[in-house]
Write a structure and sequence with these properties.
The protein is built from nine helices and ten strands. By secondary structure, the chain is of the alpha/beta class. The chain starts with a strand and ends with a helix. The mean pLDDT is about 90.
Length: about 250
């Protein structure tokens, strides 16, 4: 799998350098500081570094149809993303007073998935679950959009989210669905409890089969006449309110 861009490559180098097989850098007259640091860290960890001139660099990656982010001149080759086991996520959060998990229902845009992961890490989320089918997977676009945050949170891939919900309920989680038709706003909800927050895909929202298994619903306050936000923005808003409540006691 590829990691594209200075920030995601650097963050992964600093947290999980053993994941890399090799790194390719664009050779320039005056390397940018982050590129220099990437090269130094890679060499310290025994990672192969190839320096390519512009023509070689562009030809190599154009043939592989990986144009996105190539202008940054940094590409890392890593092992395939290692998904976590749901049980490990729940056990890992067992010592946290008010754990928060995200269940992402068929979000297919990798940019949205990457942005959600970034917000989840920044706002203290303890794990993410995505469905095995009809969902974006963690790939080079997700890693780049998350700026490397995907390496800092456990992400599970489950075949059946209904079974996931049943499992989480048995372990004390309240299932909260984000829905524009909910009767209560974010600031009216109590986030000081174990919560698994479900976010649905844009256009479709949360599937009915999952809604039937929710304990409660929440919506984001918005200007009258406008009732939708990008799903990654919605995730950030709701997670921020949960984070805020926990910080004030």
């Amino acid at each position: 799998m590829l990691v594209i861009g200075k920030n995601p490559v650097l963050e992964l180098l600093e947290t999980k350098p053993k994941e890399f097989n090799k790194i390719i850098l664009l050779k320039t007259i005056k390397p940018e500081p982050k590129s220099v640091k990437i090269k130094e860290l890679a060499e310290e960890n025994g990672i192969q570094v190839l320096m390519l001139r512009t023509k070689e660099f562009l030809n190599f990656f154009n043939r592989k149809n990986k144009d996105e982010g190539i202008t940054q001149g940094v590409i890392g080759f890593i092992k395939d993303f290692q998904y976590a086991d749901l049980r490990d996520i729940v056990e890992g959060a067992s010592g946290i007073k008010y754990p928060m998990l995200l269940l992402l229902d068929e979000i297919t845009d990798p940019h949205n998935l990457g942005a959600i992961i970034r917000s989840a890490v920044c706002l203290g989320c303890d794990g993410i679950v995505i469905p095995r089918h009809n969902s974006a997977e963690v790939n080079h676009t997700v890693l780049k959009t998350s700026s490397g945050a995907a390496s800092k949170i456990r992400i599970a891939k489950e075949t059946n989210l209904v079974n996931t919900i049943v499992y989480l309920k048995k372990h004390g989680y309240f299932i909260m669905g984000a829905d524009a038709k909910a009767d209560k706003f974010t600031f009216e909800k109590d986030f000081k409890k174990p919560i698994a927050l479900i976010l649905g895909s844009e256009g479709k929202g949360i599937r009915d089969i999952l809604k039937k298994n929710c304990d409660e619903f929440v919506r984001i306050p918005m200007t009258p006449g406008f009732d939708s936000l990008n799903v990654s923005v919605s995730a950030g808003v709701i997670l921020y309110e949960a984070f805020r409540q926990k910080q004030v006691g």
